Amino acid sequence: MIIENIDKGKAFDWGKTSADYAKFRDIYPQTFYDMILELGLCKDGQKVLDLGTGTGVLPRNMYKYGAKWTAADVSENQIQQAKLLASESDMDIDFFVAGAEKVSFPDDTFDVITACQCIWYFNHDITAPQFAKMLKKGGKFLILYMGWLPFEDEIAGKSEEIILKYNPNWTGCGDKVHPVLVPEQYLEFFTLKIRKEVRVDIPFSREGWHGRMRACRGVGASMTGNTLAAWDKEHMDMLENNATENFLVKHYISIAELEVLK
Are 190 and 168 in contact (CB under 8 A)? Predict the structure, then answer.
């Protein structure tokens, strides 16, 4: 995948990091899911479409709350992992391979559409009207994000420095607490109901944080060969010298709830 305003146009492929993604990126705290449930969403028989699902972290973790989930991702490898993980827990989730722009269902099919950690990858001129059509009257579009805070957390900051050493084109760095992106195209079809940010501390082991970093766009999805091997060594050395075996990393959760205009 190449997107001009992401990583200065450098190609990335989530499929290359699917194994790490499946193992190390299921890290959202219960607070994350509670924020969704407090909105009355993704529960009790609602039909939910999760786009950019990756390995299905959101639908798998919220499955127990009773929604009927359908989920898509542009990467075949990601969907393979999602299906495997769901089947291991006997979850009936309809996973399929498709970019958000290619997903099409009849009008008024879903109660909720979710986009978690992926809104900036969509072609909003296409997806904004398409999402609105697929939602029922009163339906919600939920944009979700959780990121680490490199200027407030020493380990997160050092990890970013090492990524940028080996991948200076990576633009997923330097995050601060801010409202999640709501592209203007959606405001023609939706009313912005809620924006909310909450700080959280996420526990990691050294292996877990290293894996989380490997499974980010700037590392496993874009580095290869000797570059990735060199990053692996330097990042683990940094953790061994600067982090205890188990530690917390400062993050924040940011959500936006939009209601379709129908």
Answer: no
